[in-house]
Amino acid sequence: MSPRKPRPPKVRPPDPDRVDAQWRLFLAAPLPPDVRAVVRGIINELAPKDWPVRWVDPETAHLTLHFLGDTPPERAELLRLALPAVVARHAAFTLRTGDLGAFPSVKRPRVLWLGLYGPAHRLAALHEAVGEALRDLDFPVEEGPFHPHITLGRVRNQGTERVPLRAMPEELRALADPATGVMTGPPAVTFPVREVVLVRSYLGSGAPRYETVARFPLLTQSGQGR
Ligand code: 3AM
Question: pTM for this structure?
Answer without folding.
Answer: 0.89
